[in-house]
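Input (structure):
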């Protein structure tokens, strides 16, 4: 929920920047998504004149083959995208961000946004197309998602508190992956916006190791919407003295 709040806050702050006297669209040229999860294409719109009522605005996302990916009138959405697409935010706030969930391996695009303003004008942003690199859970596939980045000290001391971190990049701020640990301890997490529609979620685990943790496996797992998982594993190297009897 905190991640989604930050996502909306970013666009609320950016609205004043988007207002202007010309047609303009801010989108990344490409984003990365995971098959079976969701992906968000961040989109910020500018059009001539004052803000319009929601009922005056029609937002459309479509492919090069004119397949309707999203339409304000949902009955006009192509069968392949029915019940899978939505806009995050509101067009009247000049937010045209597209969410696709669940993402399919055929959803590579490119995608184009079009705005239609009642009793005014229509405009397709043909020079601002967005493609999606869809990663899948096939270990022989070059687009298999990268595992989380797991950071832990090479040597930790028994009885001395240690903090490890696990980070993962994703492209679905409304439904971010959940990072879980194989070891008990105090867990905290945060999410920060990156470039090209990416977000980084960081999970920190703090615990006090014992001699029983020596050569024990420590894993961090990213759990996605839909239940798919990808993990990173390391072996703990715990130092303890002969007089250290902490269990």
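Output (sequence):
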């Amino acid at each position: 929920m905190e991640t989604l709040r930050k996502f909306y806050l970013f666009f609320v702050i950016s609205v004043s920047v988007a207002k202007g006297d010309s047609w303009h669209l801010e989108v990344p040229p490409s984003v990365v998504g995971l098959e079976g999860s969701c992906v968000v294409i961040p989109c910020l719109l500018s059009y001539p004149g004052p803000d319009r009522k929601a009922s005056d605005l029609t937002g459309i996302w479509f492919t090069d083959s004119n397949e309707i990916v999203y339409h304000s009138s949902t009955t006009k959405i192509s069968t392949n995208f029915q019940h899978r697409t939505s806009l995050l935010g509101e067009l009247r706030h000049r937010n045209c961000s597209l969410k696709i969930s669940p993402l399919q391996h055929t959803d590579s695009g490119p995608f184009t946004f079009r705005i239609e303003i009642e009793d005014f004008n229509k405009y397709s942003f043909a020079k601002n197309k967005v493609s999606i690199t869809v990663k899948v859970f096939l270990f022989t596939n070059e687009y298999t998602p990268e595992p989380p980045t797991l950071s832990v000290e090479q040597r930790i001391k028994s009885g001395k508190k240690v903090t490890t971190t696990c980070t993962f990049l994703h492209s679905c701020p409304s439904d971010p992956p959940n990072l879980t640990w194989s070891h008990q301890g105090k867990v905290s997490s945060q999410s920060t916006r990156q470039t090209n529609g990416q977000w980084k979620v960081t999970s920190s685990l703090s615990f006090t190791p014992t001699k029983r943790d020596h050569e024990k496996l420590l894993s961090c797992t990213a759990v996605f919407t839909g239940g798919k998982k990808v993990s990173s594993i390391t072996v703990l190297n715990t130092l303890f003295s002969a007089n250290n009897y902490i269990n």
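Notes: Residues 6-18 have pLDDT under 50 and may be disordered. The chain has two domains: 21-135, 149-239.
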